[in-house]
Specification:
By secondary structure, the chain is mostly helical. About 80% of the residues lie in helices and about 0% in strands. The chain contains 17 helices and no strands.
Amino acid sequence: MNRNKIMLAVIFTLIALLGATSTHAQAPEWSKVNAAANAARDRGEYAQAQALYNQVIAMQTSAIGASNPQVAVSLNNLAGAHHEQSMNTQAEQSYKRALAILEKAQNQSVSLGRTLNNLASLYQDMGADAKAEPMYLRAMGIWKNLAKKDNAGEAFSAVSLAGIYHSHNQDDAAEPLYLRALTLWNVEGKTNSDLAADALIHLAGIYHFRSDNDSAASMYARVIAIWQKTGEIEKQEGIAAQAALGEIYRSEGKYELAEPLLEGALKGTEKLAGSDDLQVAASLNNLAVLYYCEGNYQAAEPLYRRVLDIRQKNLGADNPTVLQTVEIYATLPRHEGKSVDAAKLEAQAARAGVAHL
């Protein structure tokens, strides 16, 4: 379950639905119970929160009727609490009850769209993309026809629907939705938010896969700038973004731009995985290749030595990847005029039956 995604969708719905305040005499009473439920939920006391939300629903149903949109607010709250606990059946039931209310109510298009987002998000978290997709599409239709646009609700629908298409390799459908979400977040002043970063990193991957390096580099650079401010750059996705952009720059001969990115990726990988992990060997290899391309064999040699040591330790001396590393490593001493050392390494590769470069 993606808690951040759930909370985003639920918060959107509550903002939309809480616009009207009842003047009924009993409203303050259920408002206090609702506040207690929200507080319990914030503390992680979900059983208490769910009981209190149910109490609110009962009070509202008695006072203003089961079809009042304010009941949909409480149903969304209850569904969200269930959703966060992966109580998916209960969450689905509450979201559907909220939808049934809003579909019959007047002037509730925004609330309906955001509740569709919530239910679709539940289905997406359950892996039921076939159920989630039509919900998001229906919400997108609502956003399109609104006189006063709901940028936040539409952005959530767009990026979530894009995520479904991207996960099914339908990138031609995903791309315009990610771009639409970015446009909407720009309007909302969230150009440098985590929300924008999520769309940027997926667009970067799409463009990189297409070998559209200019577009991919632009997206990677933007997301890296965001993550450097938030600390996400030190996590796995941030490290991968640095490595990907570094490799693009290296392939284009932009070595000065590539070096700090590949160094950052190496440092981050060592911090996460430890010094002897195969992921570290891959990062070392990327940086070593950069130095090799620059003709800086003296800098490349110790990196290849570490690559070789790590791969031998993890894979064994006769592994094809290890033997290929030996072969490449053997070229470095010869470039540096160390023919004796080169001959020893080349002989090691030859004994394993690997052809020389």
